[in-house]
Every structure is written in C-alpha cells, then in structure tokens.
Design goal:
The chain has 152 residues and is an alpha/beta fold. 27% of the residues lie in helices and 16% in strands. The chain contains five helices and six strands. It has helices at residues 28-40, 71-74, 92-98, 100-109, 116-122, and strands spanning 18-22, 56-60, 76-80, 87-91, 125-127, 141-142. The protein has a four-stranded parallel β-sheet with strand order 5-2-1-6, with helices on one face. It has a two-stranded antiparallel ribbon with strand order 3-4. Helix 1 crosses helix 4 (100-109) and helix 3 crosses helix 4 (100-109). The longest helix has 13 residues, at 28-40. The termini are far apart.
Length: 152
C-alpha cells in the first residue's frame, strides 16, 4: 500500500550524465528548449522543482545552427556595458558568425529560471562553435535531439 507521500529528489542522490548534442542544421529555438529541459532535469522521472536534477550538456557545431525566417538580419540582441548610454546591440546573424557559442548560450539562458538554481543549471552547459570539445574524459553520450515539427 502506498504511503501517500510524494518523492522528492535530494541533491546528493542525483545521478548526472553527460550528453553531446550536435547543433548543425537545427533551428536555434527548438534546440534551446530541448537543451534547457535537460539542464533542468524535466526529462527524468525524478524531477523535483527545487533541486537541480539535470544533466550536463555539451553542444558542438554552434556556428551551424539555423536561424529561421529573417531572424539573422532582424533579431537584435542587447547588452549593457554598465556605463550610462552604453547599450550595445548586434544582430543574431552577426553573433552567429563571430561568437556562435555566445548566441546559443544566451538563448538557452533565457529559458532557465533566473534564480540561484537557474545559475547552477546554466553552469552545466558547455557550448563550442566547432565540432571539437575537451570533455572526452567524461564520455558524453551522443544525444540525437528529435525536434517537434522538424520535417528533416
């Protein structure tokens, strides 16, 4: 007979895996939602909202990510230097060419909670512009992201 108590994961009991995602030819937003889901741990049956139960994610080939529609020219990303009047903006296409890691990281960061827990989730994300990464020792499993609505 069930005791009627809900399962709550504890920080010490969380089992983490390393997952390798190839971002080549994947729409940026759809890829980011799936990666954010894994970082939060929502793909696990032991998901607990107040515990970081997510896995480590290594994203490679960030420079090959797809920006659908006219987002490459029209979407602008803003940052502030901290000085009065120093609001800087660049297009998503420019950022994909020059700093593709930063583009992918920023989109995924926008989908995580803005709390201490969200920052600990974000630290488990590793993004690289090309196909190489320094995490071979962790033996990451290749994760073939199947995106909803993707006809490929």
């Amino acid at each position: 007979m069930a005791s009627g108590r809900s399962f709550m994961a504890k920080r010490e009991e969380v089992q983490r895996k390393w997952l390798l995602v190839d971002a080549a030819d994947k729409p940026l937003g759809r890829l980011a939602t799936e990666v954010a889901r894994v970082l939060m741990g929502k793909h696990k049956p032991t998901y607990t909202p107040h515990v970081d139960c997510g896995d480590f994610v290594v994203v490679v080939n960030a420079h090959k990510v797809v920006l659908t529609g006219r987002k490459a020219e029209q979407k602008r990303l803003y940052r502030h230097t901290g000085y009065p009047g120093h609001l800087r903006s660049v297009t998503a296409g420019y950022l994909r060419e020059h700093r593709p890691e930063r583009l992918v990281e920023r989109v995924i960061w926008g989908m995580l909670p803005k709390t201490k827990l969200g920052r600990s989730m974000y630290r488990k994300l590793k993004v690289y512009g090309d196909g190489t990464h320094p995490h071979e020792a962790q033996q990451p499993e290749t994760w073939n992201v199947i995106l909803k609505g993707d006809a490929r």
